Amino acid sequence: MPKKIFVTGGAGFIGSAFVRLVLEREPDTQIVNYDALTYAGNPKNLEGIDAARHAFVKGDICDRKAVLDALPNDADAIFNFAAESHVDRSIYSADEFLRTNIIGTQVLLDAAREKGVRRFVQVSTDEVMGTLPEESDAFFTEASPLQPNSPYAASKAAAEFVVRAARETHGVDTVVTRCGNNYGPRQFPEKLIPLMIANAVNDEPLPVYGDGKNVRDWIYVDDHCRGIWAAYERGASGEAYNLGSRNERQNIDVVTSILDALGKPHSLIKYVTDRLGHDRRYAIDATKAEQELGFRPEMSWENGLRATIDWYLNNREWVEEIRSGEYRNYYQKMYGSSLG
Ligand code: NAD
Ligand code: TYD
Fold first, then answer.
1. Among residues 144, 275, 305, 318, which is most buried (max CB within 10 A)?
2. Residue 152 catalytic?
3. Predicted structure pTM score
4. Is 39 a catalytic residue?
5. Tens digits of per-residue pLDDT, 106-135?
């Protein structure tokens, strides 16, 4: 019997990578991919995949009836990727973050219970744990308190709490994954790495917040997706697993690596006003996932960054279609300058 899974947000950056990976690696698995196609969802992210084992349904995770209609009766799992995901947008306006990330998660948990779905996998983030001191040996572990600092992180932390409540109250089988900053093909160019690649390619200024020394712990998107699958298959019910590849980098180093790889001058770097409430450092201790799930990231930073840059260079029309649309208004509002 083929296994059926319900993936939400599967037209976004990580969700679409997950769909590709599962279709490649799990020949007996069928996917219903449920996505509202917000500004961040893109049907082009799903081009070329095996249509025989993948059904796309356009819908909002907050729409109870639509979720119940789309969710197969015999689904083995829900993987909840659907979210508003960009910190800067949440600073500008938090409403949609609270609606999708919290209410939407609750609707999915209710639907899982009603349809008897075996396992619920919540794709969360290290950002729920707040920030770490800059120069220290401190890492986020599963025992770290949830201390979110941005409206985005607060909404994801709240989502973790509704997941926990569904398990404690109703016995829903849940697993939570908390990952660091992802990079790779098809990431919407509002995020650091694709934004800097696109601006550098177009000889436009690269806006670095504050002193550029904030640290993020970068992981290649496919490694994250392998970790999510491992948590689904081998994670203990009710547990959270931190996923990371021990790859801390200051933003300014990431930006200069991109410029160097593209042969562009460092003079394109423009220091701009810092993000409000800007978390200083994220760093993940993934020991639990390594020991309990056998989680092993495969991609090195050097190869991953090269593969990512190459993808954006080879898919200029994917980026330019976004950069020529509503994104221009976003950029003007957020950065106070227009794209060329
Ligand atoms: P993304 O913004 O690229 O994609 C989000 C997807 O969700 C889009 O396809 C969008 O259309 C869909 N969506 C949004 N609101 C929806 C709604 N109400 N109903 C149905 N679909 C909706 O995000 P991403 O970077 O791929 O992140 C995916 C998940 O991974 C999110 O839950 C995010 O919090 C989590 N995460 C992301 C990172 C990262 O570095 N990007 C790191 C850790 C965890
Ligand atoms: P981002 O990709 O938005 O991810 P997150 O905020 O979830 O970590 O940003 C990564 C880092 O890059 C973060 O420290 C903010 C910084 N940044 C800039 O300096 N300039 C930018 O234009 C953007 C989008 C981010």
1. 305
2. yes
3. 0.98
4. no
5. 999 999 999 999 999 999 999 999 999 998
Distance (angstroms) between ligand 2 centre and the Cα of 109 equals 31
- List where CATH 3.40.50.720 sits in the chain: 3-182+218-243
Exposed/middle/buried for residue 238 (C-beta within 10 Å: 0-12, 13-18, 19+): middle
> What topology does CATH give the domain 3-182+218-243?
Rossmann fold (3.40.50)
**According to CATH, where is 3.90.25.10 located in the chain?**
187-215+247-278+301-328
Ranges of beta strands (E only) in the chain are 3-8, 29-35, 54-58, 77-80, 119-125, 174-179, 181-183, 206-209, 215-220, 240-243, 248-250, 269-272
Would you state the CATH architecture of domain 187-215+247-278+301-328? Answer: Alpha-Beta Complex (3.90)
Q: How far apart are CA 33 and CA 2, in angstroms?
A: 16
Q: Which of 9-18, 21-30, 129-138, 302-311 has the lowest mean pLDDT?
A: 129-138
At 2 the pLDDT is 81
Q: How many CB atoms neighbour CB 64 within 10 A? A: 16
Residue nearest to atom 1 of ligand 1 (CA): 12
State yes or no: pLDDT of 136 exceeds 90.
no
**Hey, whose CA ends up nearest to atom 5 of ligand 2?**
87
How close is the Cα of 282 to the center of ligand 2, in Å?
12
What atom in ligand 2 is closest to the CA of residue 85?
Answer: 7
Residue 27 has pLDDT above 80, yes or no: yes
The verdict on whether 183 is a catalytic residue reads no
For the stretch 218-268, pLDDT in tens is: 999 999 999 999 999 999 999 999 999 999 999 999 999 999 999 999 999
Say if CB 36 and CB 57 are below 8 A apart: no
Return d(Cα 126, Cα 131) in angstroms, integer: 9
Q: Which ligand is nearest to the CA of 96?
A: 1
